[in-house]
Request: fold
Amino acid sequence: MPLNAFAVIAYATGLVAGLSGVGWWSAGTAAVLSLGALARNRNAVAGCLLIVASGAAVGADSAAARVEAGKAPYVEPRADTLDALGRWRARAGASIDTLFGDDAAVVRALLVADTHELPADVRDRYSRAGLVHVLSISGMHVGIISGAVLLALQGVRVAAPVARWLAVCITLLYVVAIGAPPPAVRSGVMFAATTGGWALQRHVSPWATLAIGAFIPLLLNPEVALDLGYQLSVAGYAALTAASLWARRTLPHHFRGFRRTVVTDLIVSVLATLVTAPLVAWAFGRISLVAPLTNLAAAHVVALMQPALFLALVLAPLGAPAQIAANGARPLVQALDWVAAAGSAVPGGSIVAAPSFTVALLGGVVAVGLVGAAASARHVRTFGVMATTAFVAMVWWPLVPLRATGLEVHMIDVGQGDAIALRTPLGRWIVIDAGGGRMSGDAGRRIVAPYLRRAGGDVALFIMTHPHDDHVGGAAAVITLLNPADVRDAAFAGTSPSYRDALVAAQERHVPWHRVRAGDSTNIDGVMVTYLAPDSAWTASLTDPNLASTVVMVRYGAVQVLLTGDAEVAEEEWILRRWPGALAADALKVAHHGSSTSTRSAFLNAVNPAIALVSVGARNRYHHPSPPVMDSLVRRRIRIARTDQRGTVVLTTNADGTELFDGDRRLPLHSSLLQRGVRP
Reply:
C-alpha cells in the first residue's frame, strides 16, 4: 500500500477528530508525536502524524464555522431558488415514477440518489440482508455506468481515446446532475485518473487512484469525512483492491476459469463485509452474517440492472423506447429485491449490534489491519498483529466495569418531540420516550440509538409516556437496536401505529413489558424511579392520551428530577391531589413542550424547580413553547434550558448525588430532601 494512501487515511482521520470536537487537542497531540518520530528517524510516521494534525486543524476550523453558521438567523428558502440541476432531478424523478410504477422508490435511490420515498420496510429488509449500501448511489453504481457508457461508445466505433474521454465527461456530468454525492465523486475522479494514466501510457496503481478519488471530496468539503456513504465507498473499494491482491497471491495458478472468478468474488465480498462491518454496525445497529453471499449475488444483478436503468432514464424524453427499456430493467429490480428478501429471511442471518464509540473505533483499527494484511506481502505479520490486538481490545472493552460517577440527565434534541435518557452511576441507561417517527423520520434510529451507543452501556429500562408519535415514533427502533431489559408504559387504550410497532418489537425481541402503576418504584444502580401517574381508575374515562401520560420522579441521592411527558392541566391537578407535598424537584421536564395546556401555577409552585427543561423543535408549527409559560418560569427565576436553543441538554450530579450541575454551573437543590431528614 503506497504512502499516498496512508496520507489520505491520516488526513481523513484528522478531519474526523476535528469535526468531532477534539480537533485542536488532536492536532497538538499529533504534532508532538511527530516530533518524537522525527527524533527516532521514523520519517514516514512523522509525516503521517503531521498530516493528521493538519486534518484535525482543518476539521476544527470547519466545525467552528458550522457553529457560527448555526447562530445566523434562519431564512426560509424561496421556491424560485431551485437551480437547473434541481429542476432536472425533479423531472427525472417524475419520469422514473411514470416508467417504473411500484418500483419507482428503489429506482429513484439507484439513479438520482433520492431515498426520501423508500418505505421503512424496504430499508429494514435490505439492512438485514447486508445490502443497505446498494440503495444509495455509490462508487459501484457510477463505475458500472461508466463502463457501460464506454462499452456503448466503442460499440458504435468511436475511436478508443475519444471514447474514453467522452465516457469520463458523461460520467462526471451525471455525477454533477445527481447532486455530486461523495461516493459518486470518488468514483468519477478515479475513472478520470485512470483514463489520464492510460492517455500518458503510465501504469496507475489502484491505491493511487483510490487516494486521489478519496482526497478530492475531502478537499471540496471537509465534512464529507463524516458522510457514511463516503466512508463505506472508500472502505469497500479498499477491501476490493486488497482482496483481489490477496487472491492473486494465494490462489493456486492451476485454479482458473469460472471457479477462480467465483472464489475471488467470494473473497472480495467477505473482506468487504468485514471491513465495513464497524461502519454498518455504528450507523444501522445491525450486522448481517449473510452479507458475503447476498452481496455476491446482488453484485451480478446490479451489474446488469444499472446500465438498463440509466438507459431508460436517458431515453425518458422519447416515451415508448424508454418504457421498453424500463420494462426490461424491472425484472432485474425485482430480482435485487428478491435477493434482499431471501437474505433477510434467513434465521439468524443478521444480529443487532450497538457498539460504543470506543468499540466502533477499535473495529475500524481491525478493518485497517485486515486491509493491510491482505494487500501487503511484506508486512502481513505487522498488520496481522495490529488487527488481532485491536480485536482483543474490542471484545474486552465492554467487559470493563465502569466507575460510579453520579447521575446524568440527557434531554436529547430530537426536534419537536421528547427523548430523555438517564445514565446511571454504573453506566446503564433509563430511557423515557424516543422522539418522532414515520412522517418526521425515525428519531429512534437516526438520533437516540446512535447517541446512546456513542457513550456505551446497556438500556436497563425504557418508558413510553403515551402513544403519540412525537414520543414513541422512534420507540420500535430503540427496542430493536438496544434491546432494553424492561419496557413500561401506561397501556392507554387509544393506540397509534408507532405504539403498536413498539409493542410488536418488544414481543419479537422477547423484552418484558409491564404496565405503569402509580406508586410503584424501580431502583436501578441507586437511581430510584417512582411512577406518580397514571393509574387505571384515572385513565378509564379518558379519550386524550396526553392526560394519561406517564409521570415519573427520579431520585439519586439528594437530587430529584420530575419528568412529565405531555401531562396537561387535568392530570397535573390529579397528581397534586394524589401526591400533595411530594412533588418538590430540582429539575422539571416541562410538559407538552411548553404548551399553554400544562405547567399551571399551582403545579409549578408545588415542584419549585431550579431548572426547567423544554424539549421542543426549532420554528415548530405549534409555536411551542408558550410565551406565558416561559414568562411564568422567568418570574420565578427558574433557569430554562431548551433544545431548540441549546441542542441536547445534559445535567449531571456528583458521585453521591448531593450536587446538581448544568454544564459547569452549580444549581441549588430545591427538593428539600436533606432538610426533611431523608438520607441520600
Remarks:
- The chain is about 55% helix and 10% strand.
- The longest helix spans residues 3-39.
- The first strand starts at residue 286 and ends at 288.
- The CA atoms of residues 5 and 211 lie 5 Å apart.
